[in-house]
């Protein structure tokens, strides 16, 4: 019983700390799909992030109950804690499963979505408006094309006009006078946008997945500890039933 109380108190403090960790993961996923919404049309893809944020909010009162129960056992508090742990377990298993599933699903959509943006982009040498979705991505991630700058040459080869340049958004930040001229390839971003987008997506989703997995294990331990304490405090006033 004393070990269960000590473990529950320790887990209560852990829940407070992991609430911030979980909130960071939720914000990371939500902002990623918001910033690149023109690549991910389905609004439900940010659901793992919102579930992680809901989990972070519920972890705070759960930690308070775990610490208070370890000091002074209360039947009402023990029951409330058990319900909150069950709710958290459902949320985290759902969030982990969705994050893993969406990570695999959206990775296959990124290449076609980026390819479509590249082929739809309308630019001419030295007259690059730089306002399209693909320009925003290239400037933000410091990348060029889907795989590299040659994707822009393939996109322009289907038309009569073959610009010997790429959009100015492919230029590196340190080269302020760069106009996307292929004669100065060293001034262009070398890496394609697809790999950088996949890395960001994989990091955000796996972050949420592993946070939820570890927290689920800790909540099972808290549930077992709470159950041990409940066994040592039976329902004396309801034995007549």
UniProtKB/TrEMBL annotation:
What is the protein named?
TSN3 protein
- The reply on keyword Membrane is yes
Q: Does the keyword Transport apply?
A: no
Which keywords does the record carry?
Membrane, Transmembrane, Transmembrane helix
Q: Where are the transmembrane segments?
A: 7-33, 45-69, 81-102, 204-229
The record's annotation in Pfam families points to:
Tetraspanin
Q: Which gene encodes it?
A: Tspan3_1
Per its UniProt record, what SUPFAM superfamilies does this chain match? Answer: Tetraspanin (SSF48652)
Any GO CC annotation of this UniProt entry: plasma membrane
Topological relation to the membrane, as annotated:
Multi-pass membrane protein
Q: Where in the cell is it found?
A: Membrane
Superkingdom per UniProt? Eukaryota
